[in-house]
Amino acid sequence: MAAPSAVRRLLLVTGFLVLVQAGVGLVINLYGLFPFHRQSSQAGAPRIRAYESFAWAVGHGTPALAVHTALGLTLVLLSIVTATRAVLLRQRAVAFWTVLGALLVIGAAAFGGSFLANGKTLHSLLMALFALSSEVCFHLAVDLLPSGRHGAVPTLR
Questions:
Q1: How far is CA 143 from the centre of its chain?
Q2: Which of 56, 57, 122, 144 could be disulfide-bonded to 61 (CB atoms 3.0-4.6 Å)?
């Protein structure tokens, strides 16, 4: 069984990285660090085009876009690990919010790949909204975790 303190640390790190990721995404969006005229293969399933877009962004995109993409893929893996550890705690509310947060991170990555593949600004907006919504879920999960201070009452002097 996972320890609440370990899950708390994972949730805090994951939530922090979501905010860093969103910040890097804002910089890319505001300062035009996204090369809009890239070669894209239009043949194949959308998942294949999204995968090709991720590989292209890391290998040939601007440094900011490469960092944003690599951090996004890292967040997908980290959120899955965090959700798995939260489920092992056997606390329904914590597990629910953490799994929902992980699903939102995965959705943000999917919309990010789709945006890279087709350039639709709606997909960029949905990527940002899913990512920031996942931060709310992770924060709620942290708040629902039992604190390590049983019976600790602050005293005033």
A1: 19
A2: 57
